[in-house]
Amino acid sequence: MILRRSFGFFLAALFALLVIPALAADISGDWNFKASSPEGEHPAKLTINQQGEKISGVFTSDRGEFKVEGTLKGNAIKFALKYTGGDEPMLIPFDGKLEGNKMSGEYHAGETTGAWSAEKAK
After folding, report:
1. Is the pLDDT of residue 78 over 60?
2. Which is nearest to 57 in space by CA: 35, 86, 77, 36?
3. Of the residues 25, 33, 60, 112, which has the fewest C-beta atoms closer than 10 A?
4. What angle do CA 11, 15, 18 make, to 5 degrees?
5. What pTM did the predictor assign?
6. DSSP state, residue 110
7. Upper half-sphere CA count for residue 100 (Cβ side, 13 Å)
8. Of 56, 85, 52, which Cα lies nearest the Cα of 69?
């Protein structure tokens, strides 16, 4: 009896280890991105490469191309953009939630806090 319970627990644990990572979202690809600021809305293209929970990529806007690095854990996405287009380089963090082919959240650029959203390009 104890052996059967232990074996059943082992099978359940093995199933969780094999299936749960397979259910993780793959957000690799191009995203149509928008950021809101006091000056208005700013469109951009976000290209993401994903390996497990780690993401990297390129953010392309009218201000140039900038590297992006971060994580996707469950539906929580966090990434930072290395902005080099101003007087001095700045790391801009973005936090948000993934919901299907859309994601949204907040960013902080110096004294400015704003909203952002993105939708997977078709």
Report:
1. yes
2. 77
3. 112
4. 140
5. 0.78
6. T
7. 2
8. 56
Paired tokens of 117: 């959203």
pLDDT at 106: 98
Between 4 and 48, where is the model more confident? 48
Token pair of 95, please?
């936090």
Angle formed at CA 52 by CA 49 and CA 58, multiple of 5 degrees: 20
DSSP H stretches of helix in the chain: 2-23
Asked whether 49 and 58 are in contact (CB, 8 A), the reply is no
Q: Give the whole-angstrom CA distance, residue 54 versus residue 69.
A: 8
Q: Which residues pair with 112 in a beta bridge?
A: 109
Mean pLDDT of 67-87: 93
Q: Return the DSSP state at 65.
A: E
Q: Closest Cα partner for 55 from 71, 67, 66? A: 71
The first and second tokens of residue 101, run together, are 């082919």
